[in-house]
């Protein structure tokens, strides 16, 4: 959220907002005079978010039920657009990045937080053992459903690399791409600025 570079009174977009965690953080960053729009196409996720929103008492978040690949939003309207743990689940990653870039003002930021493959060889081995071996087992026992816990590592495995994601961001019209690894590269934040 800090990488979005938001200011009081600004306009922010949370894409694949789910239960609105990023949108709520953005709302604090832009203050009551600012505006946050949260887009997701999954009603049950947004319903959970609506309860959080009601508890927060915030009035500057507008929720839009829509596909991130074709957002019913004006061009050049936001200071920043962020997506947290959503890009990996998109059918067309480039289309979503292009949409986020379209709706951001020139000079505004597009920020993508996503799970990634750790870089260090020793940590990567431990991580793979846990992520591909232990986590699905625990999920199967505790949750009695292995599917989501098999999907999670498989989706990280098949998602584009840091370099491929950065190249896609350049392709859709972003510049000055910066990549910040989190927790030894288990996740990464890509930040781009609209030309
Ligand atoms: C793992 S959740 C992340 C939610 C939230 N950003 C967070 O960090 O808690 C992924 C979200 O992406 C949404 N999503 C996936 N594909 C989408 C699409 N094409 N358009 C809109 N939302 C989408 C799902 O509905 C889901 O709520």
Broad CATH class of the largest domain:
Alpha Beta
Within the largest sheet, what's the order of strands?
3-2-1-4-5-7-6
User: In percent, how much strand structure appears in the residues?
Assistant: 25-35%
Helix- and strand-based class? alpha/beta
Termini Cα gap: 21 Å
User: Could you list the spans in which at least 5 consecutive residues all have pLDDT below 50?
Assistant: none
CATH fold node name of the largest domain: Rossmann fold
**How many helix segments?**
6
By CATH, the architecture of the largest domain is named 3-Layer(aba) Sandwich
> How many whole angstroms does the radius of gyration measure?
17 Å
**What best-fitting shape do the alpha-carbon axes yield?**
globular
For the residues shown, what is the average pLDDT? 96
Please indicate the count of domains.
Answer: 2
Q: How many distinct beta strands?
A: 7
Helical percentage: 40-55%
Order of helices and strands: EHEHEEHEHHHEE
Bound molecules: S-adenosylmethionine
What would CATH call the homologous superfamily of the largest domain? Answer: Vaccinia Virus protein VP39
Largest sheet: 7 strands, mixed
Task: Identify the notable features of this structure and list them briefly.
seven-stranded mixed beta sheet, globular, alpha/beta, Rossmann fold, 195 residues, 6 helices
Task: Please provide a written account of the structure.
By secondary structure, the protein is α/β, with parallel strands linked by helices. The protein has two domains: 2-116 and 160-194, Rossmann fold, CATH 3.40.50.150; 119-158, no CATH class. The protein is built from six helices and seven strands. Strands 3-2-1-4-5-7-6 form a seven-stranded mixed beta sheet, with helices on both faces. Helix 4 runs antiparallel to helix 5. It is globular and about 45 Å long. The mean pLDDT is 96. Residues 16-19, 21-22, 40-42, 45, 67-69, 84-86, 89-90 line the site of S-adenosylmethionine.
């Amino acid at each position: 959220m800090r990488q979005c570079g938001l200011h009081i009174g600004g306009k922010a977009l949370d894409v694949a907002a789910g239960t609105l965690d990023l949108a709520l953080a953005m709302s604090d960053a832009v203050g009551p005079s600012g505006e946050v729009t949260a887009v997701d196409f999954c009603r049950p996720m947004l319903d959970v978010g609506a309860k959080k929103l009601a508890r927060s008492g915030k009035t500057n978040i507008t929720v839009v039920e829509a596909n991130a690949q074709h957002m019913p939003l004006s061009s050049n309207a936001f200071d920043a657009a962020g997506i947290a743990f959503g890009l990996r689940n998109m059918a067309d990653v480039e289309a979503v990045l292009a949409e986020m870039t379209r709706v951001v003002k020139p000079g505004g930021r597009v920020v993508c937080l996503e799970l990634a493959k750790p870089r260090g060889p020793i940590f990567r081995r431990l991580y793979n053992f846990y992520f591909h071996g232990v986590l699905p087992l625990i999920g199967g026992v505790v949750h009695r459903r292995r599917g989501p816990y098999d999907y999670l590592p498989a989706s990280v495995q098949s998602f584009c690399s840091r370099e491929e994601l950065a190249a896609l961001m350049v392709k859709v019209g972003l510049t000055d791409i910066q990549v910040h690894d989190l927790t030894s590269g288990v996740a990464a934040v890509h930040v781009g600025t609209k030309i």
